[in-house]
Amino acid sequence: MQDDLDDLFATARQRPPEPSAGLLARVLHDAEGVQDAQARPLRSPYRRRHRLLALVLGSAGAAAGMATAAVAGVWIGFAQPEAVSSVTAAWLADERVDLIPNYDYLTE
After folding, report:
1. Are 98 and 91 within 8 A, CB to CB?
2. In the chain, how long is the greatest CA-to-CA distance?
3. Which of 19, 41, 47, 70 is found 20 to 30 A from 98 (Cα to Cα)?
4. Domain-by-domain residue ranges, the chain?
5. Span 16-45, pLDDT tens digits
């Protein structure tokens, strides 16, 4: 069986497939139609503003991420969770801070 496959592949390598002239003509005709459609760019009155906004903010996903980070930063600065305030207080008082708390109560 292996020899049969080797013979088949060797025969296929000797005669590579050639596309027909009709197929090539249809492909070229379709390609020219696509090029003609892309040659006419769509003009939008907001195109320049959108390009500037995309340059500054990146994309919609980047803008949403920046907005989320800004809201989170304002919230953390305003509410100051206990972990943040204790680390800040210890840092300002030059005390040692245990950044890896003891989790012995989980093993009980």
Report:
1. no
2. 84
3. 70
4. 59-106
5. 888 899 999 999 999 888 887 666 666 655
